[in-house]
Amino acid sequence: DLTGQKMIMDKYTRIQGDYVAIVKNPSELIPPIFMINDLGSCLEWNEAMQKITGMKREDAIDKLLIGEVFTLHDYGCRVKDHATLTKLSILMNTVISGQDPGKLLFGFFDTDGKYVESLLTANKRTNVEGKITGALCFLHVASPELQHALQVQKMSEQAATNSFKELTYIRQELRNPLNGMQFTHSLLEPSELTEEQRRLVASNVLCQDQLKKILHDTDLESIEQ
């Protein structure tokens, strides 16, 4: 049916046009996007990808995504380890084989050596006949403000952990002196003391009780520093 075939071709042409319009759009609202063919070579590398990686489009196009664009070497965008490349390869092969869109927490170093953390989403690309021709990929990267907030949160959590360790150490170090004070008090109880001495001992006992309560408080985070 020529009419049906023409409709399919028109639809495919519109879709391809939409792809190109999105990828070529310089708007900051467009996320980092790249495309690969079914052999793993990079077909597209939009402006947002250039900004986030520092790698120019002409340096990425026709290069193998895994091994030349993202690599363990000093050229391209370096990743931390071989496991990262393996996970990326598995994701691309999974999508190109026709399975559902996949996602991967993916990190790499830009050309200035800055580490970038992202969520990579990959979708299959097909031709007019429905044959898979590669993958269309998006990188979702937190804004600088969100990255700063996450960094502050990590620092706060680390500080809280350090404070907890310090409190635990202090509690352990205070237990022996407290036990010694309690033992001394037990020796003083049968002794003949003046009224002033008894008041001092009683005050000392109250302090011991308060300290003992703090030292036996299992929820150290509730103790005000």
UniProtKB/TrEMBL annotation:
Keywords: Chromophore, Photoreceptor protein, Receptor, Sensory transduction
Keyword Cell cycle attached: no
PROSITE patterns on file: PAS
InterPro entries, per database record: HisK_dim/P_dom, PAS, PAS-like_dom_sf, PAS_fold
SUPFAM superfamilies, A to Z: PYP-like sensor domain (PAS domain)
Swiss-Prot/TrEMBL GO biological process terms: regulation of DNA-templated transcription
Domain PAS: 15-70
GO molecular function: phosphorelay sensor kinase activity; photoreceptor activity
CDD domains: HisKA, PAS
PANTHER family: OS08G0260000 PROTEIN (PTHR47876), PHYTOCHROME 1 (PTHR47876:SF3)
Family statement: Belongs to the phytochrome family.
Name by which UniProt lists this protein: PHYTOCHROME C
Organism: Cenchrus americanus (Pearl millet)
